[in-house]
Amino acid sequence: MSEKEKNTPEEKQNQSVDFQHYLKKVDELIDHSPIRGLFDEIDKFFHKHGVFSSIGVDIIENGDELVIQASLPGVSKEQIYMDIEGTILTIGLKNDATQEIKDDQLNYSFKKYSYSQSQRIVKLPFPINATTATASYENGMLVIKGQKLPEYQKQIFLD
Question: I need a surface site. Which of 30, 111, 150, 159 has the fewest CB within 10 A?
Answer without folding.
Answer: 159
